[in-house]
Amino acid sequence: MKRIVVAVALVALALIVTACDTLLGDAAKTVAAQKVFSMDEFEQNIIDAFEPNSVGFTYVIAKNGVVERSDAIGLGRTAADGGPRDIAVTDRMHIASVAKTITTAAVLRLLQDTPGVGLDSLIEPYLPPFNPTNGMWTRGPGISSLTFRRLLLHRSGFDFSEVANGETDALLSQYIANGVTLPLNPATYDNVHHALFRVIVPYVLGETKGDLESDEDFHSRVFSEYVQQVVFGPAGITADRVSFVPAGDANRYYRWPEDGLPGVGGSNNDFRLSLGAYGWYMSVLDVGRFLAYLRFTENIISAESREIMNDERLGWWNTRVGTYGTYYIKQGSWRWTTTPTRGMQAVAANLSGGIQAAVIMNSRADDALGAAFNMASIMRDAFDDAHIEQQ
């Protein structure tokens, strides 16, 4: 596979580290004292892990909010799709469930700025009003007990076997009508939890829909505008990351190992009416900026909110404990087809020592059982193995 080297200027974010990384145990401190982090080793470990398992991928590595390494390796489009077209670090691709970390940050900012509403506040007053015309948004049993925290922790008690797969308003309304029927432990990870914030946020904000605007368009518009206002804008991501990428410039998404057939799911797919758990198209540099501003500034959320986010793993579902501390990680994957699987994967990580890293692949390297390539564990191992003996 051809490696495409891209010259990327350092992105100086003028950030100040305001707090120490997660405290290490005594054993980890001893190991840390014996070895030092090597940026060269970390970059090479990422390349070695992902290059043999993808049609194309992009990555960024930053330290204390400043990009130190960034590259794009492989193809964005193969010959089967009119290529070859080299993949680039500025390419916007679907980031799948990495979006949940973005939604979590937006919700924490909302709670931070809204007097009288907090993590343990009930969501029921902020659900869409019951619609007598179509029966949508009927409150089922237990809905009156659901809180913001329970949604963010994936502890709703919804039975996900009872409703068709999807996160449209109509399907979310069915979950609310069915109510809470299952035990809260263990947590059950599902897209519905974060997608519900798309319909909750507009009512917390007190917004009202336009005269000719559908409920679905109203929820999507207000939610996406709010995320742009409190997350993307403060991180210097000024363009709308929900809007389409021109189809002619789009990457495609492939099976891995590649089978020579056309890809699927161009980056111009429209997820606007199911935003929340997924749906944004971002470059790996965009993801890096988000991680940096979330971690090192209070532009997005306060230090107190960030501490809660980390301590409770809100938005960091794939957090790993490594040799050098706790690594706050979110990975995502998406299938456009299943026979064979064609899709993508992404991972975003805040690691110890002020390091951030993100990778986006335009293919899916499933194992023999059909499980997605475990990018979070690979990122942990790549980071741990990048510490070398002091010279």
What keyword list fits this structure?
globular, 10 helices, 391 residues, alpha+beta, Beta-lactamase, 8-stranded antiparallel β-sheet, two-stranded antiparallel ribbon, disordered N terminus
Structure description:
The protein has 391 residues and is of the alpha+beta class. The protein has 2 domains: 3-96 and 253-270 and 281-389, Beta-lactamase, CATH 3.40.710; 105-228, no CATH class. Helices cover 29% and strands 18% of the residues. It has helices at residues 26-34, 39-50, 99-113, 148-152, 169-178, 191-204, 215-232, 284-296, 303-311, 375-384; strands spanning 3-4, 35-37, 56-63, 66-77, 85-86, 93-94, 254-255, 281-282, 320-322, 325-338, 341-350, 355-361, 363-364, 387-389. The strands form 4 sheets. Strands 1, 3, 4, 5, 9, 10, 11 and 12 form an 8-stranded antiparallel beta sheet that branches. Strand 4 (66-77) and strand 5 (85-86) form a beta hairpin. Helix 6 (191-204) crosses helix 7. The protein is globular, with a radius of gyration of 21 Å.
